[in-house]
Design a protein that fits this description.
The structure is a single chain. By secondary structure, this protein is of the alpha+beta class. Among the domains are: about 190 residues, Histidine kinase-like ATPase, C-terminal domain (Heat Shock Protein 90, 2-Layer Sandwich), CATH 3.30.565.10; about 170 residues, Ribosomal Protein S5, domain 2. It has 26 helices and 25 strands. The strands form five sheets. Strands 1, 2, 5, 6, 7, 8, 9, 10, 11 and 12 form a ten-stranded mixed β-sheet that branches. The termini are far apart.
């Protein structure tokens, strides 16, 4: 080693007191944003909005706020207005600066840390306003308080000017307005907000906070133009076609249309910042409905005074989580009319529980702590499950619905077809991990168990017919579960010799390392034959399925295990399903669903995804499930071939090669139209193919559950509404 290299090495490895860096202010957040918001992807981008909204919701939980207004501005900045008390503007004596400046510039500062500001508080990570400020190009806060409007601006976490008074407002009006633009140097993947993502989260917040009105607006005009570009005639053709395919045996009924919003109600005044801010809270319930059209939960468009369009949706649920259950059950057939609701407080834990059984075979139970979703449950969910299992078994025994010789009903039996919301408010929640996926407070278990047991026992005694209906469904579920257990044994490979007992139609790969292997689930034997010829035999397995698999949304567990196509997938994957699922036994790193690029292919993909979501969700959570994207067009000209995966790509290719009579364009409507070489080149070659990873967003799990139920359940009207709302977004429809 040369002397020069030795000197360089010494410098590189020097580690003394001066190598310890101190990050001032909010620089720590900008250096490691993932530590505070989890990710800088689209999910982290939307999380910034949730943190600001959570602060407003805390005001609602404390009883000081009843309206939150969220706007996506034209430049993809966000404005959140609430009519709470307003962040204090006085000097914080410890910091020597206004309290609002403390909140936005100092980490772990606020009213949520035991200072008496809030009894309970939400927020996914508890870092709130200061982190949003740090990760924004700029942020402005306005506060209406004491008859005055105050304002301060920050840029990338740094104060631009001292808090100043900018106007006046009525003495009785209070609140906070926050506007911020995410930093594009931090959020490099995207800085464009998704209206639907925000809509789902805000709807959930409104359900969980009884009597809170949340309004979401979108001022971006580009999307409106693109939607209006589609002619009404073409849009109606698409809707009719989709409806015909989705519900062949159902009579078509005309959808009712809402009354148009009057010009006076739709238009909004254009004022300066201080006047507009004060006006935002000068609305009664009636005038608020006028501003949004009064269509709760329905997206519609209003025209502003400047002529621009604004997309608006409003959420307001006086019934709280009871309405949440009704919303989740709208695509299902309830077993009884009543939606059960229990509430109470014990050991400083406020408990709300609401549930209703339906005729489906899936359990949909969602738990929350201080409005924070806990997808892994925790002690509050344990308390709920203990309570209903014990209470229903006690009732079934006392009512002689269960004989002495018969075993108790299991929790799974009782929860078959159950839709439930378990929500607790607790002063000092203890979560397992920073992501707050699971509650650990032991007192929550006892509180939920006690309150639900006591009130459910009384309800069952007063409503014997409902109690009998639930118990009879649970007994049928018990019998079906025993039949399923016997059928399940047939899908298990208990010894090493069983590795030879793979599905007969499966063309397995030779590589036995799961990390290198992938399996294609292919629609039909024809496409399966081409795929088997085209594949890389070392790493690619092919499992052709015959037509459409069983819709698991409408089938009991024993029927599912008896289905030949589903058994083939279970055996091929190797993981087992349901309670037997073991991700470590997965035989393939990638499970690729490869179906035709038409409506029937999309239907089959949905059936497959429904099965995986209901019985193997961990495969989706850990990123093992993909959708293949076959090309839509083949363009041949002068013995050269191009493939296009969209209409836009086809137009681009035609612009390059020229539009003339020598162009031969083939529209692929099925994988069977491709030979093995074409299928490999376009859809299976790892170097050139396009795969779409199926993602699983646990924060909106209730909406995901509802989507599957809507699309695959028995009720037609919710599916009609879904199709009518989303038909405008359909691409490459084969009509």
């Amino acid at each position: 080693m040369s002397e020069e290299n030795m000197n360089n090495t010494a410098v590189e490895h020097e580690y003394g007191a001066d190598q310890i860096q101190i990050l001032e202010g909010l620089e720590a957040v900008r250096k490691r944003p993932g530590m505070y918001i989890g990710t800088t992807s689209s999910r982290g981008l939307h999380h910034l909005v949730y943190e600001i909204v959570d602060n407003a919701v805390d005001e609602a939980l404390a009883g000081f706020c009843d309206t939150i207004d969220v706007t996506i501005n034209e430049d993809n900045s966000i404005t959140v207005i609430d009519n709470g008390r307003g962040i204090p503007v006085g000097i914080n004596h410890k910091a020597g600066i206004p309290a609002v400046e403390v909140v936005f510039t100092i980490l772990h500062a606020g009213g949520k840390f035991g200072g008496g500001g809030y009894k309970v508080s939400g927020g996914l990570h508890g870092v709130g306003a200061s982190v949003v400020n740090a990760l924004s190009n700029w942020l402005e806060v306005e506060i209406c308080q004491g008859g005055k409007v105050y304002k301060q601006r920050y840029e990338r976490g740094h104060v631009c000017y001292a808090l100043k008074e900018i106007g006046s407002c009525p003495m009785e009006k209070t609140g906070t307005k926050v506007t911020f633009l995410p930093d594009d140097t931090i959020f490099t993947e995207t800085t464009v907000y998704d209206f639907d993502v925000l809509k789902r989260r805000l709807r959930e917040m409104a359900f969980l906070t009884k009597g809170l009105r949340i309004i979401l607006r979108d001022n971006r005009t580009e999307e409106e133009v693109s939607l209006e570009a589609m002619s009404a005639e073409h849009e109606n053709e698409q809707i009719s076609e989709l409806l015909q395919r989705a519900q062949e045996d159902v009579k078509d009924t005309s959808a009712s249309s809402d009354d148009p919003v009057s010009d006076a109600a739709a238009k909004e005044s254009v004022k300066d910042d201080s006047e507009a801010f004060a006006d935002a809270f000068a609305t009664s319930e009636e005038s608020t409905k006028a501003r949004t059209g009064g269509k709760i939960g329905k997206i519609h468009t209003i025209t502003l005074e400047n002529g621009k369009k604004q997309k608006v949706v409003e959420f307001y649920y006086e019934g709280g989580i009871k309405e949440f259950v009704a919303y989740l059950n709208k695509s299902k057939e309830p077993l009884y009319e009543n939606i059960l609701y229990f509430e109470g407080e014990k050991n400083n834990v406020y408990v709300e529980v609401s549930f209703q059984h339906n005729d489906s075979y899936n359990e949909s139970v969602f738990s929350f702590v201080n409005n924070i979703n806990t997808p892994e449950g925790g002690t509050h969910l344990q308390g709920f499950r203990n309570a209903i299992t014990k209470t229903f078994n006690d009732y079934a025994r006392s009512a002689k619905l269960l004989k002495d010789s018969e075993p108790n009903l299991s929790g799974e039996d009782i929860r078959e077809g159950l839709t439930a919301i378990v929500s607790v408010k607790i002063e000092d929640p203890q979560f397992e991990g920073q992501t707050k996926q699971k509650l650990g407070n032991s007192e929550a278990r006892g509180a939920v168990d006690n309150i639900v047991s006591e009130q459910l026992t009384y309800f069952l005694e007063q409503n014997p017919q409902i109690a009998k209906t639930i118990c009879e469904k649970s007994i049928l579920a018990q019998r079906a579960r025993e039949a399923a257990r016997k059928a399940r044994d047939l899908t298990r490979r208990k010894t090493a010799l069983d590795t030879m007992a793979l599905p007969g139609k499966l063309a397995d790969c030779s590589d036995k390392d799961p990390k290198n292997c992938e399996i294609y689930i292919v629609e039909g034997d024809s496409a399966g034959g081409s795929a088997k010829t085209a594949r890389s035999r070392a790493t690619q397995a092919i499992l052709p399925l015959r037509g459409k698999i069983l819709n698991v949304e409408k089938a009991r567990l024993d029927k599912i295990y008896a289905n030949a196509e589903i058994k083939a997938m279970i055996t091929a994957f190797g993981t087992g399903i349901h309670e037997d699922f073991d991700i470590t036994k997965l035989r393939y790193n990638k499970i690729i669903l490869m179906t035709d690029a038409d409506v029937d292919g999309a239907h089959i993909s949905t059936l497959l995804l429904t099965f995986i979501y209901r019985f193997m969700p961990e495969l989706i959570k850990q990123g093992h499930v993909f959708l293949a994207k076959p090309p839509l067009y083949k363009l041949e000209k002068n013995k050269k071939v191009w493939y296009a995966y969209s209409d836009e790509e086809l137009d681009s290719i035609l612009s390059e090669v020229g539009r003339d009579q020598n162009n031969k364009i083939q529209r692929y409507k099925g994988l069977g139209e491709m030979d093995a070489e074409q299928l490999w080149e376009t859809t299976m070659d790892p170097e050139r193919r396009i795969l779409l990873r199926v993602n699983y967003d646990e924060e909106t799990e209730s909406e995901l559950d509802l989507t599957f139920t809507t699309l695959m359940g028995d009720k037609v009207e919710p599916r009609r509404e879904f199709i009518e709302e989303n038909a405008q977004f359909v691409k490459n429809l084969d009509i």
